[in-house]
Write a structure and sequence with these properties.
Belongs to the ComF/GntX family. By secondary structure, the chain is α/β, with parallel strands linked by helices. Helices cover 31% and strands 15% of the residues.
Length: 201
């Protein structure tokens, strides 16, 4: 008696490219064998990347985020809710921690695109981090992203996080700098195991 609602027609769905097999073993970057250049650099700096993404950031995905994030069509956050739910449910025992927006950016956009996707997926999450007001990542080149200075703080500095295993969730993974800065803050509070996930890579 229950009919499953489809929010994405087949002709649109096939234009989104799912992450395949030939990807970086650490971050799902397309067209890689073994570890990509970015992950190799992170590893040399003592940082272990363990990231999973569902789709490549192709032209269709770029257009999706343009409408979802920058034109404010919040309901588009529902399109991939089922897939996000199924993927994140695999991380049993992990606390989901979304990458936050700065207050300025949230007020301008009207919503946080990451928590909106999690809400549509009906997944509980812990908001442990807050972001300082900085230049948007979309306005930075690759070099500037990799040189990103710390832009996160803990919401509650007194919180003991040493018993937690965390899966950080973002919308798009580009160089990994945002995730690594968030991990630095959480590692500083005793978190030993942190993985990450994004809709697009």
């Amino acid at each position: 008696m229950k009919r499953e609602e489809e929010w994405l027609c087949e002709s649109c769905r096939i234009r989104f490219e799912k992450v395949g097999n030939e990807v970086c073993s650490s971050c799902c970057k397309k067209g890689q064998k073994g570890m990509c250049e970015d992950c190799t650099t992170w590893k040399k700096n003592g940082k272990e990347v363990c990231h999973r993404a569902l789709y490549y950031y192709n032209e269709e995905m770029k257009d999706y985020f343009r409408r979802y994030k920058f034109q404010g069509d919040q309901l588009l956050g529902y399109l991939f809710a089922k897939e996000i739910y199924l993927e994140l449910k695999k991380y049993k025992g992990y606390s989901i921690v979304p990458i936050p927006l700065s207050q300025e950016r949230k007020e301008k956009r009207g919503f946080n695109q990451v928590t909106a996707m999690l809400d549509f997926a009906n997944l509980p999450y812990c908001q442990l981090l807050k972001k300082r007001d900085t230049q948007a990542q979309s306005q930075k080149n690759r070099k500037e992203r990799l040189e990103l200075k710390q832009s996160f703080d803990l919401i509650n500095h007194q919180t003991d996080l040493s018993d937690l295993k965390i899966i950080l969730v973002d919308d798009i993974y580009t160089t990994g700098a945002t995730i690594e800065r968030a991990k630095e803050i959480l590692n500083g509070k005793g978190v030993k195991e942190i993985k990450s996930f994004s809709l697009a890579r």
